[in-house]
Each structure stands twice: as C-alpha cells, then as structure tokens.
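User: Second chain of the day. Same drill as before.
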Amino acid sequence: MSSRRSMRPFLLTAAVAALLPMTATAAPPQVSGGVVKIGVLTDMNGIFSELAGKGSVIATQMAIDDFKAEAKPEFAIDMVFADHQNKADIGASKAREWYDKQQVDMVVDAINSAVAIAVSSVTREKQKLLIVTGAGAMRLTNEDCSRNTISYTWDTYSTSRPQATAVTKAGARDWFFLTVDYALGQSIEQDGLAAVKAAGGRVLATVRHPISSPDFSSYMLQAQASKAQAVGIASAGGDLINAIKAAREFGVMKNQTLVPLSGSITDVHALGLPVAQGITLTEAFYWDLNDQTRAWSHRFFEKHKRMPNLIHAGTYSAVRNYLQAVQAVGTDEALAVRKQLGAAVINDVFASNGRIREDGRMVHDMYLMQVKKPSESKRPWDYFNVKAVIPGDQAYQPLSESRCALVKKS
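Assistant: Same format as last time:
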C-alpha cells in the first residue's frame, strides 16, 4: 500500500507533463508579429486610376481607422500600397515581394483583371489572402477560383447581363460589340453575348481594341455601318469614357442604343450629364442610396474631393470586415480568416445581407441605374435614378453553372 501511495505523485506529475505539449499544440495561433499588414495593389496613374487608385488607398485607411476606433484591437495594423501599372508581371512580382519580404497578410483592390488573376496565383502559392475589389473577370470565381481569393464587389456577369437583357427585351435585338482585348473585355463580352442570345437577340459583329486605345473613331464608324440597334461597350475606365465620347461625337447615340457594360459613377462624372444622360448602368453602390451611404460618402468626399464609387466603398467594406474576422479568430492565418469571412453575414455601407460563397464570390444586391438628364440633377453628383434592385441571388452566376473546382454539386 505504501509503495502505491508513493507512486501517485509521480504518476500525477507524469500525466500533467504528458498533457503539456498537447495543450501548447492546441493553443490558438496568434497574429504574426502582432501586426496585420494590408497591401493596396492598384492603378495609381493609368486608365483605371480614377476608378481605384488613390481612392482605394483612402478607403483602406478609413476602414483601418474606423476599425481601430470601434474595436480597439490588441494587434497593430499597417498599410502599404503600390502601382501595378496595369501589367500582370509587375502586379505578381509586387505581391510576391510583399508576401516574402514585407509580411503582408492581405492584398486588396487588384484592379485590372489580368493583374488580379496573376496575383491570385501568387497568393495561393504563398497561402495569403487576396480580396479583389477592383477587377471583374469571371475566371476569378470559375476556372481560377481559389480558397485564398475573394471577389468582393462586382463581376462581368452581374453588370453586363442585366443591361444586355433589359435592352434586348426592350426591342434592340441586333447588337454590335466593341471589346477591349484582354481578360476583362473577354469576360464582359462573353457574359453580354450570352444575355443577348438568351433574350432572343443576335450579335452582328464583334470588334476588339487594345487597352488604352488612343482613338475610337474607326470603331464607331464600324458600329454605325453595322446597322445594329445596340452598341455594347465591353471595356472600362479611360477606354470606356473615350469610347462614349467618340460615340457622341460621331452621332452613334442618335440612332443606336449605347450600352456601357461596365460603367460607374466615376465614368459619368468624367463624361458629364449632357453626354451621359439616358445611359443605363448596373452598379453595386451609389452614394445617395440611403442615410448610411450618404454619411460615409461625405466623409470620403472630405478626403478625396469626389464621391466614392463601388470600388472605393467595396474596398472600405472588405478591409473592415477582414479586420473584424482577424480579431474574431485571433489570427491572421489566411484560411482561418477566410473561413470566418465565409460564415459572416455582411451588413454595412456597401452590402446588405452579403455573403461569401465557396467559389469566393461575395453575393450582394446590384442596382440598375439610369443617368439623369441635366435638368433632373439637383446638386453635385446627383446622377442616377434607381430603376430596379437586382437581388444578389439573381445578379450573380448561380453555383449550378459554376466551373470552380471548390463548388460541390449534387
């Protein structure tokens, strides 16, 4: 009996010692280095700089500041930004440098679809997180989908299909497409073509133009010669603005319906209401939707001297929700944060009842807008009439049509 009693303390000590490594292993991971680092990869000086650029940097800093004020996190938050110059190799190289040498945890914006696709590949390799708020190519949530990439604000399915469908059903059944010749244009064209055909229309011709095209006159002459009832512009940013200007100059809009399949309030502002009036757009955000969007947008305006578009508002939302997810799980490990984001319902200035699906698509409502006549506009930036709200489940490609390997189909 005495020998058994003398062994009990030893047995108890051994049992506790055996548990210690298990306890240490099971402890939750922490924020690496006590710092969460966010990289804004954008176009600072090119054709998409007004759509994203400095505005995305401002929106990111606003999200960081608001999160700090509200959540008072124990970890520090740093931001870096860079200009990818609309070149996929530069974007991928910068992302790799950030991940390897600067301990960047998450990259946001990535406007320009070719850049976003390249950065998504690097992000998956490095097991970090990319939240695309600028680019809209469908490959990001289809063939090139990744657990490490989220497409947050828009895609070509959600912008081009509602417009192409509405215009075709309204009677413009013959179409001419003018498409920028890179990943974004190809995606817009593909989704626009599908919508036109599904609505009973047909495409008479498709013409490609290079990115940053200096002159659209010859393309508009071809559009006129086609006798198409609708002219679909499958481009964005500076190219879209210059194409619309050329269409107005050559009188295309007198006899044909011009359909910018990836336009935004930034483009309308650059064109002015006399040129843009009557055009229909599909938008993910409008500053004048409600009290919440107006309050945040006026704060943004104070810093940027222009109202935000969908990319700016989406970047703010993405960064703030990312930081909330990091705090909730207690780590900046990419897939842990991604899982938390996927479980969340996003209600903020950008989205109502938004959710992130397994293919990386953030699903939220879209808005069919018509540009006001100058006489209808009552104050600066008062540009849109909301014609319809498109519920997220209808706005985005259904999972039953997904080509993403992460999607399980019954």
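Residues 2-26 form the longest helix (25 residues).

User: Great, on to the next one.
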